[in-house]
Amino acid sequence: MPGKITVVLLFGGRSSEHSISCATAGGVLDAIDRSRFDVIPVGITREGAFVLEDDDPAKFRLDVNALPEVVDNGSRILWPESTATRELAVRSVDGSVRSLGSVDVVFPILHGPFGEDGTIQGMLELLGLPYVGSGVLASALGMDKHFTKTVLAADGIAVAPWRTVTAREWASAPDAVVASAGSLGLPLFVKPARAGSSVGVSKVATASRDELAAAIDVAFAEDDRILIESGIAGREVECGVLGGRDGGAPRVSVAGEIVMTTREFYDFDAKYLGAAGVELVCPAVLTPEQLAEMQELAARAFTAVGGAGLARIDFFLTPTGFVVNEINTMPGFTPISMFPKCWIASGVSYPEIIDELIALALEG
Is 350 one of the annotated active-site residues of the chain? Predict the structure, then answer.
């Protein structure tokens, strides 16, 4: 009988989504099949140190009053010195070094910059370690909303009209930025180009210059490039994508829907902290024709950016059709996240999703 597969679960990181990554790690640690996989939990502190973490799902449970995080415990992960080996080691606080064994695959459940954006993927490519999810280019594209939109629009996929603004442009020509934003109509959404989990996102509902300027300042706190987008009137629907096996076509889940009751938009608190005003419906009520069209567009979008492994594709369903909002190349796996919900509603359990992602990484 073949031995277990050794998986490095990599989480935390330097981005503002650090705690969400930790919560996702808790979900995976709790659900992964221990009869098939040995797990090495590796945390990345907010300062970027790689440490050996506890294999304890409860430690990383999402708690509104105490968000989980990776704290520097003094250990340091020593990655393989070359592609000739896959041996991982750890240096303890006292300076002693011990082997953690040979690694089969890395599962980088990192969200945001310095993890979901191609940086970690590039490191793993250099080390010759197989990993779950998209490669360097697709990860970088998916992280950057401007380039995601550019690629999708070039492929004939509808996206919301937008204007990209740099920090230098805002500092030197704010009047021109405000004037150009006016052509996008109302409401507007202002977003960092490279952030996720709705961090730094604001809705601008009026023509007030002060309101727009405040939203721009919030977005620039997260990134030096931001997007000003036209608000799209439509249902917010999402689906999960899994890469195809043996070179096959991407597989797409049923749809889920985010229904706003009293909240302005699906912000960080609603996504992860259970804030009121939002309902998640899965599966979403769509006609067979609508679902088929959405799944076809999701597969096209995934292919257009060169996706691998997994993604969540977010849409607006408008009276004239579907508009892609975002592609998330490493969606959350927290208990209330839409990606696992959509696949569970499609007949694939949480542990089976993890098994499939690891199989896809080893296949690639």
Answer: no
